[in-house]
Amino acid sequence: MTIFTVDRSGRPGMPTFNIRKIRRFLECGKAEIFRYHPFTVKLLYAESLDVQPVEMCIDAGDKHIGISVKSQKHEFVHSQYDPLPCEKERHEDRRRYRRMRRNRLRCRKPRFDNRYKTDGWLAPTVEHKKNLHVNLAVMFKGVCPLTSITVETGAFDTQALEAIERGLPLPEGTDYQQGPRYRMNTLRDAVFHRDSHTCRLCGGKGKVLRMHHVGYWKGDHSDRMGNLVTLCTECHTAANHKKGGPLYGWKPKVMPMKGAAFMNQVRFRIVEEIGEKTGLPVKVTWGSATKTVRKYYCIRKTHANDAFMMGAFHPAHRCGEQVFCKQRRNDRRLQKFYDAAYTDIRDGKEKSGQVLSCGRTKRSEPRRSARNLRLFRGHKVKKGHITIRRQRTQIKPGSQVRYGNETLVVHGTHTRRNKKSGQVSIRVEFTHPAKNGRKSADLRKMTVVRNQYLNAWKRVT
Fold this sequence. Notes:
22 strands
């Protein structure tokens, strides 16, 4: 385990592996915890600390980020950071709720003319992933005496290779915006050019070609380059599209373009912002050079190992690989709805009111239709209710509480107000139900065993 250190003024020093000595300093009051991720202690007795050249290498990516912090003799960080996989869906939910909230205002003035995109605008999900790369560099810069940063921004510079082969000058500036679809009239021509005007199913050439959506059988009709392949008219038939046909469930080997598109969009923005916010020299490398060094040292392919292969230092003393996943630290829902429960008269099982509903999704549909399941509602087991969080609590998700004779993990907290007395009670929700089947209980009926502070990154392995 690597422990980062800072002096009493907050200036970073060299990390240490001596856990016993740091624990003794914490117990006797010579040190205090500075931050939890990465775990850093402040040495209260030190006016300044000795430092050595330390470099940070980042394997930038769309789904995985490899980090390696190392000196000439030791590697201090060997980790992989994964962003939230559902970040796009969360942004879409927030946008939908925002529009619904604004549409409820009857006298709201039209503001569509005020919408404009500033220079350098990025989509929210792309901006979020770009900020993750920059924040990781800033985070380690604050606890480690870094002297340089190296970033891998792609597998190889394809446009530079093409320029060298043709004897043209190397691309600069806007030349990198002329991608594989540059000077292509339509998306159809770009797909045919990528597949060499050959049918991907039968391999025939010189036939009449069609553009086919690979993921049609699972509802994916997007016009992404990775979802489009070339087929001939003999293979692109209605019979082949049906279930059991050769095109249903077919997954040809098509190079995915989503990660490449992300890196093409923000690769130089990442390098520029890291240099601005850290004040360190940032070097750019390519995956082809990293692969050559990795094969020379006979190391398997991982994102953390790719980061280790960059830079000038390759120490023999290495750290074990750790994988961290981005997690939500706060539940911002102020209101929760708990549905009522009924006994289904058909099988006698307890089901929610949503399951035994009328089944209509539009106001124009009648309530009493063939999809109406309210007829099968029997005895009402639980009454539906709404809880509103009216105050904050010190208990965070992930804390441990003692309820009865068992220790449970907290999922979240909400408040419940008594209509008669007006008193507000705090309800604690559990990640798993208790032995008596309760999913939540009053805070006054339990004791806090350990209060957890959630970091932005959760360690997976």
